[in-house]
Amino acid sequence: MPLRRFVLLLCCALRAQASDHLDTAAVIADPASDIGDLYAWMAPDGKRLNLVMTIVGKTFSDHVSYAFHIDSGLSRGKTTDTVTVECVFHSAWVPECALADIDRARGDAGGDGIDSEHAHFRVFAGMRDDPFYNNVRGTRAALNVAAEAMRNGVARDAGGCPHFDAATSARILDEWRHTDGRPAENFLAGWSTAALVVSVDTGVVNRGGAMLAVWATTTVRPAPPGHPPLEAGTSIDRMGRALTAQALIGTFDSREVSDARKSAYNRAPQDTWEAFAPELAATLAIYDGFDGKCGNQWLSAKQPPLSRYQPLALLLADDRLWIDSRAAKCGGFLSLERHAKSAGCGGRTPNDDAVDVFRSLLVMGRVSGVDDGVVADDRSHSASTFPFLAPP
User: Fold this and answer.
1) Rounded to the nearest 5°, which phi and psi values hold at 377?
2) What is the residue-wise DSSP string for 11-64?
3) Which of 54, 66, 106, 275 would be 193's cystine partner, CB 3.0–4.6 Å?
């Protein structure tokens, strides 16, 4: 499908897209700056942190800087040191990457990738199959049912949770599991993406402690003639956990308001992230009612209605993906945040079903129970063999 047609389809018809694909006008205008997804997890031997950033535009830009930020600390939620792996591109698949002031790599990073000068990291840049899978049409239909009920004046409790009746709740969950009334379809089946993949020595990124918090950004480099005159250093897109911005910022607003809020979110400096917590809480309240019950969302059960959604909103506002670098085996998306017994390294691998876990936690407070009918990607990806994502 040509990119222009894909963009128009997603923008105009399906505003609830993949994890973070094409979320604002800025990245629609320049898809090479649009972070589709971020994955981060420990290698099976525990010696390396694996990082993947997918880019919707199917190529990299010479006026965009692509960065993985790895914060570290002694416990989750508190970090004291940061190491950044930053890559710029001089041609389509030839990055120049710097691991802080520790190591560098430059060259054609396709094929099996290239090693850095001091072998502290390996980098790949090229086309790969997009590992994200999602029933986009079902998601949009489910949100439309909820939005219609709210427009019709459904009652809400003191925390803002709507009391959907049993029929409406059943319809929301049923629409999520189907595509236009048919069995669910993966909208991104066969979709390829530009992928930036880095595997880095754990010892150079855990200087503040074993708990790692990973997030990714694209920022403006000095632009060549003919490109939008954004100031160099301006943040274009950012991502930590899957779906936080896409599912919770501007979800039920008009297109114009939603675009403005997502743009503000993407460009916000890290020390201002907490300011988005009230907005996240308001949307969390709506998700909590999707199963016809209020107060059973993750972290909400023991809270009074007026502050019911604040703990989860604050956790999600700190939009970083947490990894325990002491564990080689990973227990699935949000497992560290949930203090799951099988959390292991936490993080997110290319094979994790982040969509169903996230929605189930927001609706029912469990890791399953709400699904979009799509159980796996159409291609097989690896959590152990570099560069991890399947060929396009």
Assistant:
1) -70, 165
2) HHH--S-SSSTT-SHHHHH-GGG-EEEEEEEE-TTSSEEEEEEEETTSS--TTE
3) 54
Taking a C-beta distance cutoff of 8 angstroms, is the pair 374, 179 a contact? no
Distance CA 150, CA 144 (A): 10
| pLDDT tens digits along 271-289 | 999 999 999 999 999 999 9
Q: What is the pTM of this model?
A: 0.91
DSSP letters spanning 90-145: EETTEEEEEETTTEEEES---TT-EE-TTSSEEEEEEEEE------HHHHHHHHHH
Which pLDDT tens digit goes with each residue over 109-149? Answer: 999 999 999 999 999 999 999 999 999 999 999 999 999 99
**First CA to last CA distance, the chain:** 14
CA angle 132, 350, 249 (to 5 degrees): 50
Of residues 37, 357, 363, the one with CA closest to residue 214 = 37
Q: Which two tokens stand for residue 37?
A: 């997804």
Single-letter amino acid code for the residue at 275:
A
Q: Are 192 and 128 in contact (CB under 8 A)?
A: yes
Strand partners, 91: 94
Place of tokens 């591109």: 89
For the record, the structure tokens of 41 come out as: 């997890």
Instruction: Give the type of residue at 63.
Output: H
Tokens of 3: 């990119």
Sign of CA dihedral 380, 385, 389, 390: negative
